[in-house]
Each structure stands twice: as structure tokens, then as C-alpha cells.
Amino acid sequence: MIPSGAPIVTAAEMRAAEQAVFASGVSQDSLMERAGAAVARETARFATGRPILILAGPGNNGGDSYVAARLLQNAGHDVSLVATGAPAPGAAERMHALWHGPTSSLYAARPRPVLVDGLFGTGMTRPLERGLAAVFADLCKQAEFTLAIDLPSGIHADTGADLGAPRGIDVTLALGALKPGHLLDIGLERCGRVLLADIDIPVHTRWRTVTRPRIDTPGAHSHKYSRGLVAVIEGAMPGAARLAARAAMAGGAGYVVLAGDRPWGEGPDALVRREVRTAEDLSEFLGWDRIDAIVLGPGLGRDRRAEAYLRAAFAAPKPLILDGDALTLLGTDAARWLETRAAPTWITPHSGEFDRMFAGVGSKIDRTLAAAAEARATIVHKGADTVIAAPKGEVRLLAHGSRWLSTAGTGDVLAGLLAAQVVQSGKGVAPAEAAVWLHARAAQLAGPALIADELIGHIPGAISECL
Ligand SMILES: NC(=O)C1=CN([C@@H]2O[C@H](COP(=O)(O)OP(=O)(O)OC[C@H]3O[C@@H](n4cnc5c(N)ncnc54)[C@H](OP(=O)(O)O)[C@@H]3O)[C@@H](O)[C@H]2O)[C@@H](O)CC1
Ligand SMILES: [K+]
């Protein structure tokens, strides 16, 4: 469980925020006392009287450990401490000097029921040394409850990459703000439950976790067109487009048209069919001024006609949602193509599609942000760690994704749901954030081993939580 709408900052931004606090007259010691007190509070809450082993690394993460150890001991807990080296000069060293309880070296450490990991936090620069990682993993394994201070040692703060983090961390207490490492890559699965401790460090960022949207009940004068018309374009695999169209309907669009060469195909009776057999037919249809958003890509195919459909959709001056085969067709020229569009565009690649379209280095956030700026499109970079990025620098990270979403068709549902949010809530990151939240919530409501068709049935339930 990760707090919704919580700010996310990189290690460097966190350090800068700390420096600003120091510049305002707060000492490093008092900030470390705040951090250590938060750690002690949460540890005590979960320890329920059991003996505690605290691991203290050489940096300020270790400094937090020394504070927590002292406060827990003063409160009557049975605390022992393991130090992996001499504390760094400054606050950590001073906090070390204030600890008067039992201390051992890592290799002499005996497991205890409660383990607090204060080895490394945002300062991890390289993989854990093998011997240390093995002892640490063993102590975690033998503990009944493990809490990591700020980040599990062995998770890269900015990327979530695995630098040797153990399994079995129950709670990670993020200090001041979430870091990308809590939500990305291996970090997402190794942090356990993430709690956020407010230690009074103001942070300014455009990166947040996805929040529940507020959705308006249709007004007294609402009608099918005012609630938005979504056009979904069918292709070689019509089931995918049908899923997108049904999801747009369930997502609250007022009118959904499925355009393709199967004018009397299956689907709900409320789904309007429009016969489109050629790119010319499609261009003519997309010229209809009632259309508020177009979905292209689910099951489109990659043949000549698909390419011509893509060109027709690009030429239409309407909000456009591109997924699946449309993204594959864009290929490595994606950014060049996308940035030519005057109307807003959203693309929803999974990592394979994203990597085929965009180069880039850094974390998933860095790469998605760079691609969004280059393509001038809002990108929903799907995965267990979904990242939404907009051209002007906003980022949203999904904190409650369901692993059960990794089945065929769930992406088509997301594309349709996104179109429904685009026609209802406008530009940029907001509709993408709403769609991603509803999609994830519908998946939770659908439960394990869900299939995409069932997911659609749970969208209204997810919406009802947003009214
Ligand atoms: N500033 C403050 O007052 C506040 C800070 N806070 C706390 O401080 C944490 C950040 O502290 P930090 O910057 O000191 O980094 P930290 O994570 O302790 O590690 C740095 C040390 O580890 C070393 N090292 C790195 N990787 C290594 C490896 N693989 N194997 C071995 N060594 C390795 C590295 O060595 P070096 O790379 O320099 O050789 C350096 O000595 C933050 O997460 C939060 O808990 C909060 O309490 C708020 C107040
Ligand atoms: K840690």
C-alpha cells in the first residue's frame, strides 16, 4: 500500500530539499532526530514488545538508525545494534556517540524477531558487497518483521533497480517523500508496504502517485453527445477494438461508434456500428464533427490498410489515443510523427513497444518524460510500474497496480477507458491518471485470474467510488 497523490522526488531533489531546510536554520541533528523518531514510532508499533535488531550503515541512513535505537531503548524496548563501519563525520557520528547499548559487527550479528534496516538509503551508489548482502538477506529471512528506513538497502533510489536488496521487507518507511525506487522496477516488489513519514521537509515536484479521480454525475442537461463521442477503429483482430469500445462505454462516454468492415458484428446493442472498409471511408467518417476522440491500434494489424488508417487518424484534428499495432507501425519514427500532430495525442505502450519507439537512458520515469517531451504526447508507459508522463514534465506513478492485469486484452480496455476520460475530462495527464486509476481499481474488484472482458464489468464499480 502506497499513499495516493504523494510527492515523489529523486535522491538529488531530496538532498536539495534537505539543504533548503538546513538553510532555513534547522540543524542536521534535529532533522535526523525527526527521521529517527519516525522510525522508532513505526518500529514500536509493529514490534509489539519483541526484541529488535537495528542495522546501521556508514551514512545518514545509519544516523537515523542510531537515533531510532536510542529512542526505542529509552522507551523500554530490547534493542541491539549492528554497525557496518565507522559513521560518517557529522550528524551520523554524533548520533552514534549518543548510543550506549550493545553493538556488534554484521558478521557476528544474531537474528532477532524484529529487524530494522538502516544500512543504506538514498546514498546507495553501487551494488551491495556479496558477503554483506548474504548476511543481510539471512537476517531478514529469520526475522518475523522487517522495516526498512527510507528504502530497502540494495534498491536504487532513482530507478528501483536491484542492487542486492533482500526479499521479505514488510514495511518501508519513506522519509519526507516517496522516491522513484519505491514504485519502479524491483523496488516495487521489494519495499513491502510503503509508509510515508512527514518529517517536515517541503518538497516541490510535479511527480506524484496516481490519485483517485473525481468524476461528476451527469448533469440535468447532459445528453449522449455532451458526454462525448468516442470512435474506435476496428482492424484485423476485431475483438481487441470491441474490448476498447465496450470499455469506453463502461467508462462513461455518451456515444461509442465502432468503425470497421463488420457492420453487424457482435457486441452490445448500444454500441453503434459504422461501416468503414478503406482509408477513404475512414477519413470521411473521421470528418464527422460529433467525434470527440479516436482510438486506433487495438487489433489494428500491421498491413498496408492499417498504415493507411494510421495516416487518416493522424490527419484528423481530433484527440487521438494510440495503442497496440498503431504503436508498432509508428516504430522508431514515432516521435517525429507524433510531434507533427496539432490535436492532443495519448499513447499507451507497454515496455516492449516503448523501447521500439524511443531511445533514452535513465529510469523508466526519465525515459518516459523524455519521450513525452520529444513526441509532444502524453504517454502511459504500462507495466506493473505504470508511468504516466506529459510533455510539460508532469509525472504520475501507479501505486496499486494488479499483477493480474498482465493478460491479453487488458491494454485494449485501458485504451477505451482512456478515450472515455479524454472526452469527459480533457487534456494532458488528468484523463490518463483517471483511466489508469479506474483500470487498476477495476482489476482489484475483478480479483485474481481476471480476464479482460470481466474487467470491463467492474469499471462502473470503480467509477462509483469516484462520485
Ligand atoms: N541529510 C540528512 O540529514 C537526512 C538524511 N536522511 C537519511 O539519510 C539517508 C541518506 O544518507 P546518505 O546520503 O548519507 O546516504 P546513505 O544511504 O546513508 O549511504 C551513504 C553511505 O553508504 C556508502 N555506500 C553507498 N553504497 C554502498 C555500497 N553498495 N556498499 C557500501 N557502502 C556504500 C557511501 O559510501 P561512498 O559511496 O561515499 O563510498 C556512504 O558512506 C536517507 O536515505 C535518509 O535515511 C533523513 O534522515 C533526513 C535527514
Ligand atoms: K535502508
UniProtKB/TrEMBL annotation:
Binds 1 potassium ion per subunit. Its cofactor is K(+); Mg(2+). It catalyses: (6R)-NADPHX = (6S)-NADPHX; (6R)-NADHX = (6S)-NADHX; (6S)-NADHX + ADP = AMP + phosphate + NADH + H(+); (6S)-NADPHX + ADP = AMP + phosphate + NADPH + H(+). InterPro entries: Carbohydrate_kinase_pred_CS (IPR017953), CARKD (IPR000631), Nnr (IPR030677), Ribokinase-like (IPR029056), YjeF_N_dom (IPR004443), YjeF_N_dom_sf (IPR036652). GO terms for molecular function: ADP-dependent NAD(P)H-hydrate dehydratase activity; ATP binding; metal ion binding; NAD(P)HX epimerase activity. One of its GO terms (biological process) is nicotinamide nucleotide metabolic process. Signal peptide: none annotated. (6S)-NADPHX binds at residues 60-64, 121-127, 150, 240, 299, 350, 412. It holds the Pfam family YjeF_N. Residues 14-207 form the YjeF N-terminal domain. Keywords: ATP-binding, Isomerase, Lyase, Metal-binding, Multifunctional enzyme, NAD, NADP, Nucleotide-binding, Potassium. K(+) binds at residues 61, 117, 153. AMP binds at residues 382-386, 411. Catalyzes the dehydration of the S-form of NAD(P)HX at the expense of ADP, which is converted to AMP. Together with NAD(P)HX epimerase, which catalyzes the epimerization of the S- and R-forms, the enzyme allows the repair of both epimers of NAD(P)HX, a damaged form of NAD(P)H that is a result of enzymatic or heat-dependent hydration. Belongs to the NnrE/AIBP family. PANTHER family: ATP-DEPENDENT (S)-NAD(P)H-HYDRATE DEHYDRATASE (PTHR12592:SF0), ATP-DEPENDENT (S)-NAD(P)H-HYDRATE DEHYDRATASE FAMILY MEMBER (PTHR12592). NCBIfam families: yjeF_cterm (TIGR00196), yjeF_nterm (TIGR00197). This is Bifunctional NAD(P)H-hydrate repair enzyme. It comes from Sphingomonas psychrotolerans.
